[in-house]
Amino acid sequence: MRKLIECVPNFSEGRNLSIIKQITDVIESVEGIKLLDVDPGAATNRTVVTFVGEPEPVLEAAILGMKKAKELIDMRKQKGAHPRFGATDVCPLVPVSNITMQETVEWAHKLAKRAGEALNYPIYCYENAAQKPERKNLANVRSGEYEGLQKKLRDPNWKPDFGPAIFVPETGATAISARDFLVAFNVNLNTTSTRRANAIAFDVRERGRVKREGNPLTGKIVLDKNGNQVMTPGSLKAVKAIGWFIEEYGIAQISMNLTNINITSVHEAFDAVNKSATSRGIRVTGSELVGVMPLNAILDAGKYFLRKQNRSVGVSNDELIKIAVKSMGLDDLKPFNPRENIIEYLLEDKNKKQLIDMNLSTFADETASESPAPGGGSIAAYVGALGVSLGTMVANLSSHKTGWDERWEEFSDYAEAGQEYKDKLLRLVDEDTNAFNKIMDAFKLPKGNSDEIAARTQAIEDASKYAIEVPFKVMETSLKSMDIIKAMAEIGNPNSVSDAGVGALCARTAVMGAFLNVKINASGLNDKAYVDNILFKGKAIEEKAQALENEILAITNQKISNS
Fold it and tell me: Concatenated DSSP letters for 484-523?
């Protein structure tokens, strides 16, 4: 499960496409980075670049981009409509998947420290990465802009968080942050009226609408004691929205920026707009994603709409995406392609050969070939995936069984957990082969002098430990999955009890098969304490799996004989 963060540096150049290209070229040169978008603006003289990857490559790409901007952009000559105070004006990091905001803040601080040391100009931290309360707001950090930066740096209160408190005329300063993921999301209406669309936008957006005395449309605007307009907040937090007419499609839309999808999700925003539109006699006909979204955002939407139907959410990711797309009409205006609209899928190497992408015949043929991989470890992981898949199937059938309607959520929970175990085991199918390849690569290392021999020996030891840890994870995951299989044998749809029994046989086989791989890879290790510990734990898992298999088969056979 890779930790992914997005980086959105804003460079103070939006007119010279050659300069922009040179900056994005160095960003793309970093292995593991996916460039998602380059958005130059001539009037603002600013380019917003978006790329994504694992934290370390993202930081490397960000530093290279900032370094190239320092070389190519001269702030003494830069003018534009957008506020700015540096060649790389801002550089926020955004958590995408399998990483918390706090972790992202830590990476932002690492980036700021590296930038200050490597580039030798002032670096400030803002938003979630701010180290002082007054620096949380970017507007405060950037106040005075480039023209006021030299004076600002003489103020001890505005000493940079990293880098020197020195004015570098050509480069200025950079502000680095960690912020929440922003989703640009539009909802389509069966009207051409911008005024009515705006009324809906005001209903839902956090800022709401201007408060008026008496008639909400024509009444006198209410002012506070300072003469500022008083606002009536909308129904959604962390949402900016406006209504507009899209000539290309001949419809009005609610255009929204969801600035924190952990506070207001895509599906919650969609339903809120739908509720407001319906109350005004307007129908929502679909929606549109502008750009990309994290995988979890659309999976959560699929689960949300399934739960509204009292249906199990323990289905595959592909099915959850399909439900989300159809429920929100994400394909109303143009096709919704998960491979282009979901960040994690964009990062997949389309040329990489994966075992789990093969059909059944090809996988069997590959296993039966003269190649040593895939071997027993991959097969053990796949058998475990099949076992928990059978338990998950029983849970899903039980959640939809006639007469058991009130129990749908109970079985849905089992099915959802089963899907998680299945997905983990499927990932381990390929990871076991990767672990084997690591060992082979270690054995190919040179062994000429004493240093090379020591490095080779350590590499073999490390690779062997990894080749132990992968099948050990198969053992742990398959054992945990047996709790689901047992529950389905006990309380699931009785017509499918034999499926639970076969699932138990598969799960036990996965545990025992993976343990064989643990033992054979442990046999050559020098770290005997590690070996003794892993074999002790493995034996305990194997014994538990065998005991659970016996219990499940006893339940299964008893129910079959009574049927």
Answer: HHHHHHHHS-GGGHHHHHHHHHHHHHHHHHHHHHHHHHHT
Contact of 115 with 162, CB cutoff 8 Å: yes
Based on the fold, state whether residues 96 and 140 are members of the same structural domain: yes
Q: Which domain holds residue 35?
A: 4-178
Beta 239-246 vs 231-232: how paired, if at all? unpaired
Structure tokens at 326: 């159809």
Residues noted as catalytic: 82, 432
Structure tokens at 167: 């004015």
Residue 89 has phi, psi (to 5 degrees) of: -75, -55
β-strand pairing of 88-97 with 209-210 = unpaired
Shared-domain flag, residues 201 and 318: yes
Residues 6 or more apart in contact with residue 314 via CB below 8 angstroms: 392, 395, 396, 399, 411, 412, 413, 414, 415, 416, 417, 418, 419
Tell me the per-residue pLDDT of 413-429, one tens digit each, with 9 for 90 and over. 999 999 999 999 999 99
Closest CA to 375 of 521, 476, 546: 521
Give yes or no for a contact between 112 and 93, defined as CB atoms under 8 angstroms apart. Answer: no
pLDDT surpasses 90 at 372: no
Domain shared by 115 and 194, yes or no: no
Report the 10 Å Cβ neighbour count for 381: 34
Residue ending a domain, choose from 159, 178, 197:
178
- The residue among 542, 410, 547 whose CA lies nearest residue 487 is 410
**pLDDT score for 366:** 93
Over range 389-407, report the average pLDDT: 96
* Residues present in the chain in total: 563
For the cut 80, the answer to whether the pLDDT of residue 498 exceeds it is: yes
What's the pTM value of the predicted model, to 2 decimals?
A: 0.85
In sequence order, the 6+-apart residues with CB closer than 8 A to the CB of 252 are 189, 191, 192, 193, 194, 196, 197, 243, 244, 245, 246
Domain boundary among 346, 378, 398: 346
Q: Domain containing 549 — which CATH number? A: 1.20.120.680
Q: Do residues 15 and 29 lie in contact, with contact meaning Cβ atoms separated by under 8 Å?
A: no
